[in-house]
């Protein structure tokens, strides 16, 4: 499990491109027949992924030792979204079949987790996010239709998009983890504009559904000290609460967002006016 430590905004101002990538970008999200995980000390989120091709892949038990628990979800909750072909997640002996863009919420107390694909030639691709949890809520499978779709933006501002809220109070109860999927409309390139911060929550973006020659310029830093991190397909970036949350692409893309922190209010954002950006 890769460990990432917090960065103070005063430190962030002094980072060059290599340092920004080392602290905030995660390039290898999906392990083939193994679970890749990154642990961020920012709100203690864990995220990663797995593509099972050869058979069932168990969630690694050795990770539990790294977080000083008997098993990974002893004091955590987990959200999973399948970005690939049809597959099955088995949790404590119960099978949950997930089609493309189906999600699954697993509560605190879930002990045994494994991932499988229905067809090795079109494998499932599971993206995982987990945060600390204080109680148990029911397991729930979420389809794209269940995921509280919210159309936002407009074509004139190049930010027309639909936000699908998988782990959200409108869909199910969680302790603190929020998670969803955003798809840009054709011709739109800004995932959020005007920009915003949310002091009460951190966020991880997984950029996906991108052509090999497409880039996303993920904007990072305080509003008066902006930087950018170039993102490619299936790469993730850690956005601390002090950083702006916005990005712009050179072509079509989608992204999964995962948040944890003080609240789960999706609209709890501090918008940044264009004249305050630098």
Task: Explain the overall architecture.
This protein is mainly beta and 278 residues long. The chain has one domain: Jelly Rolls, CATH 2.60.120. It is built from three helices and 24 strands. The strands form five sheets. Strands 1, 3, 4, 5, 7, 10, 12 and 13 form an eight-stranded mixed sheet that branches. The protein has a seven-stranded antiparallel sheet with strand order 2-21-18-23-16-15-14. A four-stranded antiparallel sheet has the order 6-11-8-9, with no helix packed on it. The longest helix has 8 residues. The chain is globular and about 55 Å long.
Average pLDDT: 94
Q: So how many helices?
A: 3
Oligomer classification: single chain
Order of helices and strands: EHHEEEEEHEEEEEEEEEEEEEEEEEE
Which structural class do you get from the secondary structure elements? mainly beta
CATH superfamily: Jelly Rolls
Question: What can be said about this structure in brief?
Answer:
The chain is mainly beta. 6% of the residues lie in helices and 41% in strands. It is built from three helices and 24 strands.
What labels describe this entry?
278 residues; mainly beta; Jelly Rolls; eight-stranded mixed sheet; seven-stranded antiparallel sheet; 24 strands
């Amino acid at each position: 499990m890769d460990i990432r430590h917090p960065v103070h905004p005063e430190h962030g101002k002094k980072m060059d491109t290599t340092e920004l990538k080392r602290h905030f970008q995660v390039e290898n999200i999906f392990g083939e027949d193994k679970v890749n995980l990154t642990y961020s000390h920012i709100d203690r989120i864990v995220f990663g992924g797995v593509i099972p091709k050869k058979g069932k892949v168990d969630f690694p038990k050795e990770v539990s030792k790294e977080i000083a628990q008997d098993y990974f979800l002893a004091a955590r909750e987990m959200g999973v979204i399948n970005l690939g072909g049809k597959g099955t997640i088995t949790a404590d002996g119960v099978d949950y079949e997930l089609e493309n863009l189906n999600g699954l919420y697993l509560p605190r107390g879930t002990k045994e987790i494994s991932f499988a694909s229905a067809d090795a030639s079109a494998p499932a691709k599971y993206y995982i996010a987990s945060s600390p949890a204080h109680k148990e809520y029911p397991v729930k499978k979420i389809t794209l239709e269940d995921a509280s779709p919210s159309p936002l933006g407009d074509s004139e501002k190049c930010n027309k998009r639909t936000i699908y809220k998988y782990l959200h109070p409108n869909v199910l109860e969680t302790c603190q983890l929020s998670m969803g999927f955003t798809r840009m409309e054709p011709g739109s390139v800004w995932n959020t504009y005007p920009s915003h911060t949310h002091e009460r929550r951190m966020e991880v973006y997984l950029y996906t559904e991108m052509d090999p020659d497409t880039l996303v310029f993920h904007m990072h830093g305080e509003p008066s000290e902006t930087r950018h991190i170039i993102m490619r397909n299936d790469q993730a970036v850690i956005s601390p609460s002090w950083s702006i949350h916005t990005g712009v692409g050179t072509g079509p893309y989608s992204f999964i967002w995962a948040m944890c922190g003080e609240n789960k209010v999706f609209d709890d954002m501090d918008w940044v006016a264009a004249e305050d950006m630098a």
